[in-house]
Design goal:
By secondary structure, the chain is α/β, with parallel strands linked by helices. It has 9 helices and 5 strands. Helix 1 runs antiparallel to helix 9.
Length: 233
């Protein structure tokens, strides 16, 4: 039987289910993101909680969330990962996406351009606010800030959303926001040198190579199925 998934979520879902409960393989995948604070010599990861395509109501959905549990529960860390792809009729560029985000954010008009909230940096910003303002959201189930274009952001009352919301509490200082993107490593490095966003980035190329190195056949089949729709190779 062959099971195929479409675009970034198809690959992400297949990757996570292929890793399964192999904690060492998950550790190797997380290392690709290169966040020094995650794995420290005296701070050992003992477990992971994975959320796929999790909704946070008006704070948007997350393609992938990885919660890292340590021997000391207070050391819990969380990775919010948003995937973007380079389809055959587009030319996705990290600097262009950042410029579009900033131009719209700084504009006086509250009505945002089409696709503004699907911009990588808009999505990462909302997840960052979700974590930073966790207590405010929890206390009154709404969120209103000075950035007028955001307006009120509610977490709602859906019980599954609220369960996920509880899982990320106390992570405001230990949350990391990651773009899984079609840019190559040199483009990512150039962007990071020119822009201090505080975000992390992982290329699809590195994920593809990871799957090849570990012979994750199901994921490789989906990369082949989506060839030309994820990143250029």
């Amino acid at each position: 039987m062959k099971i195929l998934g479409y675009s970034e979520r198809g690959i992400i879902n297949s990757l996570i289910f292929s890793i399964g409960e192999d904690k060492e393989l998950m550790r190797e995948f997380v290392k690709l993101i290169n966040v020094p604070e995650i794995e420290e010599p005296n701070n050992i990861i003992i477990d992971y909680t994975i959320l796929l395509e999790q909704s946070f109501s008006r704070f948007g959905d997350s393609d992938l969330i990885i919660i890292l549990e340590y021997e000391n529960p207070k050391d819990k860390r969380v990775l919010f990962i948003e995937g973007k792809v380079n389809t055959s009729n587009s030319n996705w560029n990290i600097q262009s996406q950042f410029n579009k985000y900033n131009a719209s954010k700084e504009g006086e008009n509250k009505i945002k351009p089409k696709n503004y909230w699907s911009n990588l940096f808009s999505q990462l910003h909302l997840k960052k606010l979700l974590v930073e303002k966790w207590n405010d959201i929890k206390n009154d189930n709404k969120f209103e800030i000075n950035e007028a274009y955001l307006g009120k952001r509610k977490i709602g009352s859906n019980p599954v959303v609220l369960q996920a919301f509880e899982l990320i509490k106390c992570c405001e200082k230990n949350a990391y926001f990651v773009g899984l993107i079609p840019s190559n490593e040199s483009e990512i490095e150039m962007f990071k040198q020119n822009n201090k966003t505080g975000y992390h980035f992982l290329s699809w190329q590195k994920v593809h190579e990871f799957c090849q190195d570990h012979n994750l056949k199901k994921v490789l089949e989906i990369f082949d199925y989506n060839k030309g729709q994820i990143y250029k190779y």
